Amino acid sequence: EKPSFGDNLTYLFQYQLGYMYWRYFMWNFVGRQDDIQGKQDNHGNWLSGINAVDEIHLGLPQENLPSDVENNNARNTYYFLPLILGLIGLFFIAERDKKMFWVMTVFFLLTGLAIQVYTNVRPFEPRERDYSVVGSFYVFSMWIGFSLFAIYTFIQKYLSAKNASIIATVITLLACPLLLATQNWDDHDRSNRYTAQSMAKVYLDSCQENAILFTIGDNDTFALWYAQDIEGHRTDVRTLNTSLFNTDWYIDQMKRKAYKSDPIPSQLTHEQYRYGTRTYVPYQPVTRDTMMIKDFMNFISSDDPKHKMRFALEVDGMDTSKYPEQYLNLNYFPTKSVRIPVDKEAVVKNGIVEQKDADKIVPYIDIQFKGNALYKNRILMLDIIANNNWERPIYFTGGSYGDDDFLWMKDYLELDGLGYKLVPIRTPQDKRNPYDLGRIDSEKLYNKVMAWEWGNSGDPEIYHDPETRKNGITYRSNMARLVEKLIYEKKFDKAEKVLDLGMEKMPIDKFEYYTLVEPFIAGYYAIDKKDKGRKYYKQMSNKYKENLEYYKTLDILTQKYYGEEIIADLERYKALVEILSEHKDDKIKTEEIDKIIGYVGDFKKVLTDFDYNVSLEFFLEDLYVAGKKETAHKVFYNSIEEYQYRLSNVSQLEPKEQLEFQDNIMRDLEDYRMLVALPLIFKDKELFEKEMDVYNDYVNKFMHFMPEEEPQDSLPE
């Protein structure tokens, strides 16, 4: 539905001016909630430090907050003092010098609100944009300066000029510069922070000598440039930003030698990729055959009229007069299937694949383009692949998981440090974990991980800003995959060293992203290091418990408003407790199972409102073994109700409508059947017989499309 004029005005005043300007303004002169980007949620809001005001503004109590909220370095509160001083200065200058007042006011408006109107701020931004309106904050800061004169003038009416100047100076210094310094120092202190430089070096050190490293955006490129250009680190690696690969000047740079790095292998000339040429190449289906990549590149780089859109359209009998001349002069590509031949000898000789894995090398790699156009950066990347002849190792930084970012070759990657190396060994993507790309050589990856440079990551004396914390996602994910591989290969000592390194350099209270710590805790339990697993379990579970305890203090309407966050914390806490259950940590398992069951009960109204069920059936065995039959029944019925609810709803449909949901119905009946059987396994025959009758009633409702065999045939006797 097209937005109305009223909708547009609401968007302008509430979001573009309210959320994307006045929120930033209040950050600077009232206070800030945290350093997490706000998405119109409970992060990134302004905060005064006056609880009564903040509770009204945020709609949440500001007492007994979770430690992550309370201890966020960017939780800076100014109690409205800078704002009040600025307003005092504004009114003072308005009274004393109207010309100056209007000059400053216009400057304030044009460098703040007017910029937001002019740029027509989008609904979602990749980062906070407060820096774009900082000019207006400078102006307001000038008014704060004028407040000194205003306060001095007022006090002078009652005291001597000397005393008035001292008092005015002390008031303004305490209420603004000193207050701002004490609140902001810890999250603005850049001294002794080397995590960004270290990560850049780790990326470069992931590459073999004279490698080509494809990067994607700004954040995974600038630090690498710094490491190479300023510190001279691994200048043999060619860092290639694929976002800039759409520009002719950058392509020209890549075709020249830089430091120790050779030019990129390429057959395209400047005339073939200059500005306005081959910006994109459309797909015109001519054949379904697979083209060799060299032939493909020769085709799209040719100036032969037969390789232009005009010729292709004329062959198809199309009226070319309906198309712009510029479009008719475009090259096209005739097939989406391209084959990259593999020179096995060159691959092994150049160290792209080690000799021990030579038997896994495939004779060719087939890639299948998606979409109906190839843009210049992808054409140049294909150009490199076509002309490299497996002489130089090629890497991708990741960070984005689009198929085109990896040239449609996700099945031919190897996780090598932080980068993904292109290798002619097929490793199909795991559909259950689509972000776990590439094969793993555990020995090679282990050696690289243990040699990583960390800077002072994890140092309690430095501020771990949001980007540093976000970088931990890559570190933790890759280390978790390595640990899983080492455990599979029964290399438990090495797995423990990797786990210890990860927890030392990325402490739980500094790096957040807690779900990524779960594999580390599970890893410790898997190698029978329960003391370490238990230690980090307690740290992790306390984070979720703090959140849930805080949510318990809210009224039911507010709980429902934050229902998604509550559900997320319940599920994450449950996943942790499942680790204890799976690895039979009898020391704390039973107590923790009771707690998660209790929390699910505490938020039953929220779960009902969201039509959501936190499945606890995983813990039934533990409860029966612990002799907690009553609690086991409670969990059993909590799970049963979910199946009954869904089956009852679908049973009310007409038989023809039910057929549309047949797979879901059969799956629910099967899961329901398995759940009903559980009490019998633990000799709870009375519960089994009672619920078996109910289950059969549900089965009878769907007999019209059930298979001939009885669904309960496999139930235990």
How does this structure look, described?
This protein has 717 residues and is mostly helical. It has 3 domains: 5-188, no CATH class; 205-433, no CATH class; 615-717. Helices cover 55% and strands 6% of the residues. It is built from 33 helices and 12 strands. Strands 4-3-10-12-11 form a 5-stranded mixed β-sheet. Strands 6-7-8 form a 3-stranded mixed β-sheet. Strand 3, helix 11 (222-229) and strand 4 (238-241) form a beta-alpha-beta unit. Helix 24 (530-552) runs antiparallel to helix 26 (563-582) and helix 26 runs antiparallel to helix 27 (589-602). The longest helix is centred in the N-terminal third of the chain and has 25 residues, at 5-29. The radius of gyration is 32 Å and the shape is globular. The two termini are 59 Å apart. The model is unreliable at 713-717 (pLDDT under 50).
List its traits:
717 residues; mainly alpha; 3 domains; three-stranded mixed β-sheet; globular
Mean pLDDT: 93
SSE-based structural type: mainly alpha
Shape estimate: globular
The number of helices is 33
Give the tally of structural domains. 3
Helix proportion: 40-55%
Multimeric organization: single chain
Strand content: 5-15%
Q: State the strand order across the main sheet.
A: 4-3-10-12-11
Outline the low-pLDDT stretches.
Answer: 713-717
Distance between the termini: 59 Å
